[in-house]
Amino acid sequence: MSMSRFSLSFLRRAPNLQFFKTQQRIRLANIVTKRLYSAEIAPNARACGLDLLITNLTQESSLEGAEINTVTSVDGLKKICSKLESPINGEISVKVLVRFAELANESFGIQKAAVYLKKTLLAEMDKSLKSEKLNMNSTLETMCALIILELTQESIFETLIDILRQQFSTDVFSVPVSPLVRLAALVSIKKIRLPDDLFCQMREWLQLKASEITEPKDIVSVIAYWNKSDSWFNIFVEKAKSCISSMSSSELIDMMSSLANSSCRPPHVLRLICDAFEQNKKDVTIDQLVLLAQSAAKLRFMDNRFRRIIAEETLTNISRFTKWSQINAIVHSMAKLHIGNLKTWNAIAAWINNNQMNAAQTELSYAVHWCAIGGKGDLIQEASGYLCEKLACSNIDSPKMWLSTVYALAACDRLSPELAQTVLQPSFVANVLEGLSGFRKLMALITIAQVQHFLKSILNKTYKGPSVDILDLMQISSTTLSDMALKLRYGKSDEGNVRYFHSLLHKLVPVNSHAFPPALTEDGIFINAIIKLDVKGNRFVPLSHFEETKVPRLAVIYLSWRDRTLPYDDDDKSTLMGPALLNMRLLKARGFIPVLFSQDDFDSNASLKQQFIRIKTKLEEALNDNGIR
Questions:
Q1: Per-position b or e across 227-261, b if 16+ CB within 10 A of its CB
Q2: Superkingdom of this entry's organism (predicted)?
C-alpha cells in the first residue's frame, strides 16, 4: 500500500512534525523518508520507528475496513474504492465485495454495481485472492456476494470455487455453519450450477451438521431451499422444531419474515411458530408487528390465533403508529388476512381520518384502497372524500393505480362523476390494457365495467359518453367469457363447491327454461343464476313468461370465502368484503334482489331434500325481506 494512505491520526503522533496549516495534507512518503532514512533522526525514533510504522500501517488497514463497513450507499462505496491503492489485499477485497452486495441488494442497484466492479476492481481482486490465504468464512461470504451481484460468470468466482474445494479437503471441521447454509440457499435460489464434487461435499456436510443448524435464518434456508426428498430432510425438520419453542418473539418474527420472503409455508413449522409466539409476544415493537402482519399476509397464513394477535396488538398500540408506511402495511395485511374485527378497524379508520392531511396522495390512495377492499369504506368517509378532491386536480401518472383508486372510491361511495368518466376514455382503457391478456385483462375490464355501472346507475343516469364492452374487448365467445369469469371469481379452491351448488340449483330451477345460466354481466358482475319466484303461485317463473310476470328478479350469488371476513373467535362476526358489498349495491341499482349463498348453507350430512328446501327457503326469505309476499 502506498505511503500516502496513512491516516492523519498517525501524522499527529509523529514527533518533530510541524503543521503550517491545520487542514494541510502532508504526504507520508516525506515523513517516512525523514524519520527512517534521514540523518536527523527524531528523538526516541531510533528504538520504535519501524515498530510504529508497522503499527500504523495495520491501523490504517483497519480504518479502511471500518470505512467500508459503515458506508451507506453504492456511490459512497465507489468513492472509497477510488482511493484504494494497488495492490488491494484479500481482506479488503472480501469486505468490498460483501458490502457492494449488501448495498446494491438494498437499493436495487445490482446491475450498476456489477458493471462498476467488472470495469475497475474485479481483475485485481482475483489476483489478490489467488495469491493470499483466505479463511473459509471469507471464501463463503465472497461467493455469496458474487452470486448476489450476478458475477458468477467472472473468473474470480472460479477462483473461489477452487479455494473452497481445497478448504473442504483440508479444513472440513472448521466449516462455519451459517455462511455455508446461506451459500447453499443462494445456489438454489439463483439456480447456480456448482461443480458436482463441490456440491456433493456441501450436501454431505449439511447432512452431517444438521443438528448444529439452529439459527432461525439458517433453519428457514434449509426448509425453503433444500431438496425435500432427501432422506435426512425430515430428521432435520424434527430437530429444527425443538429450537422454535425457545426462540424470542423477535426471532420468531424474523423466521416468519424469512419464510415469507422465500414463499415457503411448511404448515408444521408455521403452527409451531404460532404456538411459540402466542406464549411469548411481549414487548413487540410497531415495526415488528408490521413485519409479522406482512409475513402472515404474504404466506396467506390464516390461523385464527395469529389473526387475533395482529388485530389485538394493532388495537392496543394504535397510538404508537407514527408513519403512513406502518398503517398502510397493517391495513393491507388486515384485508389480505380477512380480519374483520370492527374495534380494530375503527381505530385504524380514526388514525387515517385524523392524519389524512399529512399523507402523500399515493399513501392516502393506498390506505383508501385497502380499507375499501376490506369492506370498511364506510369508516373512512372523511379521508376518501378528501382523496376524491385531491384527485380532481391531479394528473394520471399510473393508469393502473388510478383505476384501483377510482374503484376504491366507488366502493367507499365517494366517487364523483368526473373521476368515474376518466377511466372510460378510450386512451385510458388502452393504456390500462396494454400488455395484459387472459385473466389479468379480464380482471382489469371487470373493474372498469363496475365503475361504468356505478356511474350510469348511481351517479349520472343520463350519461352518454364513452363506454366499455367487455365481450368486445376480450374478443372471445360469451360462453368462454363466462367460464373464464367463473374461474377468476372462485379460483381452484372454490370451483368444486360452486359447481356442486350449480348442480343443486339447476335441479330445482332448470337452467335455460326457468333460470338464466351462470354468466358475467355487461356490468362486470358474475351472477350464478337469475330467476323469478312466484310465491303466491308457489312456482318458479319460466323464462318465456319473465316479462309479463310482475315479480322481482332474483340474482343468485354464491359467495366464496374470499368474499367475507373470517371470524377468529365466537365474538367476531363475518361481514362482506368490499368487492362483494359493491356488487350487491350495483345489483340493487339494476333492480335485482341479491340472494346470497355460501358453503355454510349446506351441511354435508344433510339430505338432498333438505338442501333443496334450504335453497327455496332462502329465495323466499329474500322476497319477504323486500316486502314481496
A1: eeeeeebeebbeebeebbeebebebbbbbbbbbbe
A2: Eukaryota
pLDDT in tens, 573-614: 999 999 999 999 999 999 999 999 999 998 878 899 999 999
Q: Take residue 179 and report the three cell numbers written for it.
A: 455462511
Looking at the structure, tell me whether residues 531 and 592 fall in a common domain: yes
- β-pair partners for 594: 555
In the DSSP assignment, the letter for residue 24 is: -
Give the list of residues 6+ apart from residue 526 with CB closer than 8 angstroms, or none.
482, 485, 486, 489, 518, 519, 520
Q: Domain residues for 10? A: 3-69
Bridge partners (DSSP) of residue 576 are: 564
Q: How far apart are CA 9 and CA 406, in angstroms?
A: 62
Residues 32 and 50 in one domain: yes
Decide which of 193, 208, 223 is a domain's last residue: 208
- Select from 604, 601, 606, 599 the least CA-distant residue to 619: 601
Domain co-membership, 128 together with 162? yes
Residues 618, 489 share a domain: yes
Per the domain annotation, does 436 fall within a domain? no
Residue 440 in domain: no
Tell whether 50 and 178 lie within a shared domain.
no
| The three cell numbers locating residue 492 | 381452484
Percent of the chain with pLDDT over 90: 60
Helices (H), 423-512: 426-433, 438-454, 470-474, 478-508
Number of structural domains (the chain) is 3
Same domain, 11 and 129: no
376: which DSSP letter? -
What is the pLDDT at residue 15? 38
Give tens-digit pLDDT for 460-497.
999 999 999 999 999 999 999 999 999 999 998 899 99
- The pTM of the full predicted model, rounded to 2 decimals, is 0.75
Residue type, 543: L
Per the model's pLDDT, the better-predicted residue between 115 and 15 turns out to be 115
582 by Cβ neighbours in 10 Å (0-12 / 13-18 / 19+) ranks as buried
Contact 455, 462 (CB under 8 A): no
DSSP 143: H
Q: What radius of gyration, in Å, describes the C-alpha atoms of the chain?
A: 33
Does 420 map to a domain?
no
Q: Residues 25, 99: one domain?
A: no
Burial of 184 (C-beta count, 10 Å sphere; 0-12/13-18/19+): buried
Which helix (H) or strand (E) is 343 found in, with range? helix 342-355
Check residue 533 and give left, alpha or beta (phi > 0: left; psi -120 to 50: alpha).
beta
- Both 56 and 147 in one domain: the answer is no
Which of 14, 39, 69 marks a domain boundary? 69
105 belongs to a structural domain:
yes
**276 and 245 Cβ atoms separated by less than 8 Å:** yes
